[in-house]
Design brief:
- The protein is α+β, with helices and mostly antiparallel strands and 271 residues long.
- The chain has 2 domains: 123 residues, Hotdog Thioesterase (Thiol Ester Dehydrase, Chain A, Roll); 121 residues, Hotdog Thioesterase (Thiol Ester Dehydrase, Chain A, Roll).
- The protein is built from 5 helices and 11 strands.
- Strands 1, 2, 3, 4, 5, 6, 7, 8, 9, 10 and 11 form an 11-stranded antiparallel beta sheet that branches.
Length: 271
């Protein structure tokens, strides 16, 4: 059964060497970056290049994104991506689907919610030029996190760092995949402190809801908490990313620790 519309043309995807962990598997944040490249390529293919957005004083930013990883991406994978708009709300909020393939094998999928804004970050309504370029295709399933069995009473773990100027994206803030990096780093620090092999962290799924931008030289706090069990060998983790008391993003990640019994998560996270 076809899982994408005919209008969703393939775009080549290249993951650079620095996208891969010592296990030669791509990090979750870099899978998100690959999906962003597919969306940018598709936008440019219909005439909406980064330069055109800049000339019109408009932009799309991600409000939320959910990703599932069918398997980890390997260094030797020859990847292509497909993406298509699904629906629009109030002419300002748009849903888009993204799929990554290794040859014909589906390896990752995403559902994204985008907001159409001015460069001053004010919501604006999309006009006919946007709708004529981005043709919506309905009837294909969206991506959701897998079900979990809740675990109550787990402590919250916090860490703080300062952002760098060289991390800023073309809009002058941290690009949305960086938030996934921050979640995984917070998780990895808890695991490493407990003597667990943090480099064995393997992504199954994640969802992030974005509330505020992060700029340079910001003191950012990341929180991570064990929320539940997923399947036979994975867990659900909850995250918040804050500046002071301001919540900039909330997230959930589904992760397994390769070669380590799932009970190790409760020991590491204090349950």
């Amino acid at each position: 059964m076809r899982t994408w519309p005919d209008s969703a043309k393939p775009f080549p995807v290249v993951l650079q060497r620095n996208s891969f962990s010592p296990r030669l598997s791509a990090r979750a944040g870099d899978v998100w970056r690959a999906m962003q490249d597919v969306v940018v390529d598709q936008s440019a293919a219909v005439g909406w290049t980064p330069a055109r957005y800049e000339s019109t004083g408009t932009m799309f930013i991600v409000r939320s994104m959910t990703v599932t990883h069918v398997r980890e991406l390997r260094f030797e994978d020859q990847l292509v991506g497909r993406t298509w708009p699904v629906r629009a709300r109030r002419d300002m909020l748009f849903t888009r689907e993204v799929r990554l393939f290794a040859a014909t094998e589906l390896v990752a999928a995403a559902s994204q919610e985008w907001a159409y804004l001015s460069r001053a970050l004010e919501p604006i309504r999309a006009g006919p030029d946007i709708y004529s370029a981005f043709v919506r295709e309905e009837g294909f399933p969206s991506v959701e996190l897998p079900p979990h069995t809740p675990i109550a009473g787990q402590p919250m773990h916090r860490s703080t760092f300062r952002t760098w100027h060289v991390w800023m994206d073309p809009f002058g803030h941290l690009n949305h995949p960086a938030y996934v990096d921050f979640c995984d780093e917070a998780t990895s620090r808890v695991l490493a402190k407990a003597g667990q092999p943090a480099l064995q962290l393997s992504p199954l799924a994640e969802a992030v809801h974005f509330r505020a931008a992060l700029g340079a030289e910001e003191d950012v706090t990341t929180e991570v908490q064990l929320l539940g069990d997923v399947g036979d060998d994975a867990v659900l983790l909850g995250h918040r990313i804050l500046i002071g008391d301001k919540v900039c993003a909330t997230a959930k990640t589904v992760r397994r620790l390769l070669g380590v019994p799932r009970d190790a998560w409760r020991g590491a996270f204090g349950g």
